[in-house]
DNA sequence: AATAAATAGTATCGACTCGATACAATATGA
DNA sequence: TCATATTGTATCGAGTCGATACTATTTATT
């Protein structure tokens, strides 16, 4: 029978993660996809915390994501704040309760156990391989990369050393360059 | 914020695969989990093609899997055959129609595109990393490995070179040693 | 040999997902 | 200014998935 080992591994990992995530969230009445959305919001920057950005990240439809976010808001894990300039936009901010929950549930117990038993060198190898696989998947299928500003071609530094986004024409703090952005684009090959 | 890069990558890959799989199966009225079950049945051996084995592989409950299999059977993608010795068991055999569908949908288009653009050397690196990650996850959490007989500690060879399973006390064909088995156990460390 | 316990599988129920469709509000552009 | 695009919400239906309850068969214990 046909066999693409990369696909087989990712499919299996994917299912295991889903089951683990379901179990972890069950105690708090959260579904895997809800945890993922919350997790994304904890690692994205202030230009990427809207429902549409979550939609693009998760690859679902905006209607579906709207429901997911409604649940998270009802559980007081995030709050919606209107944008000052564009009245169509909402910014989704994680609450203290949301952060605490993530700290507890993400990564899941299964993953924590496994990662602890891997030495630094092996971890680095795995990260590097996953990075390459994901980047290739996104690139060959014309999808957004959702990388951190640090690795974005729009990110530049001013004379005084401050970071600046050439696309959004906005200054960035050092911390912000470590967060993921929906507008991220890698260097041109 | 906390950040385990391995987890982040796997979570993201997992969601992308799920979305892609959903889209691929939608044309045929199949859900991601149904494709996964069918895929498993195409790469497992004759001792591992029962509903319970699928249940263990997917990590779900037997009730859930029973429904999944019912759908696949109704769509004539697999057939149920009673075991000759143990009347409680059913063996799930993929039909020609099922095989054809898998050929078409697994791996998904997204994955195929990406893998084609990776050279052999990078593919091997990724396979090796994924293999290590999955093995660690399964081992540290006491889960079954679902490996192929070829790498199983119960697999031995008789004087004439034939393969033999010491656990099930059954002879194996060469082809069978390339299929995954629910009883698989790696070498003792 | 009789009975208890374990194992494999199915059926049903309810909470939830997710795409599709329709809709309202705001922003952009000709 | 008016058409069009963008962001977001509401509702509906088919389907997932764990929980529970149940049957049938096998294995273990007395």
Automatic annotation (TrEMBL), chains A, B:
It comes from the Bacteria. One of its GO terms (molecular function) is DNA-binding transcription factor activity. GO terms for biological process: response to stress. Keywords: DNA-binding, Transcription, Transcription regulation. GO terms for cellular component: cytoplasm. Transmembrane segments: none annotated. InterPro entries: HTH_MarR-typ, MarR/SlyA-like, Tscrpt_reg_MarR-type_CS, WH-like_DNA-bd_sf, WH_DNA-bd_sf. Residues 3-135 form the HTH marR-type domain. This is Winged helix-turn-helix transcriptional regulator. PROSITE patterns: HTH_MARR_1, HTH_MARR_2. It is found in: Cytoplasm.
């Amino acid at each position: 029978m046909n066999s693409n080992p990369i696909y087989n591994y990712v499919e299996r990992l994917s299912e295991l993660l889903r089951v683990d995530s379901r179990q972890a969230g069950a105690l708090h009445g959260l579904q895997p996809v809800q945890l993922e959305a919350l997790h994304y919001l904890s690692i994205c920057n202030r230009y990427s915390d809207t429902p549409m950005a979550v939609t693009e990240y998760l690859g679902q439809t905006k209607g579906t994501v709207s429901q997911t976010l409604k649940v998270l808001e009802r559980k007081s894990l995030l709050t919606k704040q209107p944008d000052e300039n564009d009245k169509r936009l909402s910014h989704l901010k994680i609450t203290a309760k949301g952060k605490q929950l993530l700290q507890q549930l993400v990564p899941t117990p299964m993953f924590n156990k496994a990662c602890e038993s891997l030495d630094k060198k092996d971890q680095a190898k795995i990260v590097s391989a996953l990075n390459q696989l994901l980047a290739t998947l996104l690139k060959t299928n014309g999808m957004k990369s959702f990388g951190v500003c640090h690795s974005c071609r729009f990110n530049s530094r001013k004379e005084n050393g401050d970071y600046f986004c050439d696309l959004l024409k906005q200054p960035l703090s050092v911390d912000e360059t470590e967060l993921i952005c929906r507008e991220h684009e890698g260097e041109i090959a």
